[in-house]
Amino acid sequence: MATFTYESIKNRFKNPTVDGNLDLLDDGAIIKIGADNDLQITHSGTAGSLTSIGGDFTMDFAADLVIDVATGDIVLKDDGTQWGGFSNNSGHIEIRDGNTIFLTGAGANATFSGTLATTGILTADAGINVDNITIDGTEIDLSSGDLTVDVAGDIILDADGGDVFVKDGGTTYGSLTNTSGNLIIKSGTTTAMTFSGANVTFAGTISDSNGNIAQAAYPVGSIYMNINATNPNSLLGFGSWSRFGEGKMLISQLSSDSDFDTGEETGGAKTHTIAQTNLPDITLETNESVKIEEAPANRGSSSGGGAAYNKASVPLGGDGTAVNHMNPYIVVYMWKRTS
Known about the structure:
- By secondary structure, the chain is mainly β.
- Among the domains are: 1-64, no CATH class; 67-147, no CATH class; 163-204, no CATH class; 275-319, no CATH class.
- Helix content is 4%, strand content 38%.
- It has helices spanning 6-9, 213-217, 232-236, and strands at residues 3-5, 30-33, 39-44, 47-52, 73-78, 81-89, 92-97, 100-106, 109-112, 128-130, 133-136, 139-142, 163-168, 171-179, 182-187, 190-196, 199-202, 207-208, 211-212, 223-226, 241-243, 271-273, 282-283, 289-293, 306-310, 313-314, 322-324, 333-337.
- The protein has a five-stranded antiparallel beta sheet, with no helix packed on it. Strands 13-14-15-16-17 form a five-stranded antiparallel beta sheet, with no helix packed on it. A four-stranded mixed beta sheet has the order 1-2-3-4.
- A hairpin with a 2-residue loop joins strand 11 (133-136) and strand 12.
- It is rod-shaped, with a radius of gyration of 56 Å.
- 2% of the residues are buried.
């Protein structure tokens, strides 16, 4: 084994110059530089090493540093233990943390194998693509599937322009609009609902699965009452209506009474004249007497214009005036829906 040190040759050579190659043909040869042999160039077998024994090692080049590794790996170690490295992957770089690849290059693109965390602002003027979500400029696009926004707190939409639009394929089909601190809901571009505090005004017809909600409340055969004489079609916007029960009161159906067992049966009268046969007789006690004037039709057939009865059934007669049957009432307009 041949070993050359600066100390062994410093007094023998003064600024030596070699015109050709300087060959150290011993596989165990070591070139040592520095008073304490701080820098050593070693070759052993098929491996060579450049070792800085003490302090830092600086490489300063006037031009480029080219590292040409035939097997494609550059390994970074600390006291023999690998902590990182670079590898060639089909002409693209792979960067390792320890032995694990965390970044793979592909031209201008880079793929991170794990989580990318940043404590500062991440700037991407050309946009960011996460799975199939693209964030670019003023848009967030999802190329397929559904998007779920799940937050532990509230979702706040703050639109300084006063409008929040909902679209399908770029076409607006609805919006929320601010008007003096109150909400307007539009269908397409048409105002459908206008709020004022707890109150809401509907611009059109309110419908359920069967159609107009009012129609469901007033099917054919229903009775509509109002103190307004206007035909319900003009007020509700549907149906044909006819006046119903004019001058009559309503009574609920009763199956056990033939007068009330069928819908729209009528009966009764506003007034009724009580006939003599409808009046009870008056029975007089002993020694009681009463003089009864005869009914106008009977006058002239009895002396004195009347008759005296003692302890007998006394027939009563009236003058034919009708009795009023009306309860206290209030008049409304009633209509029946016919179609």
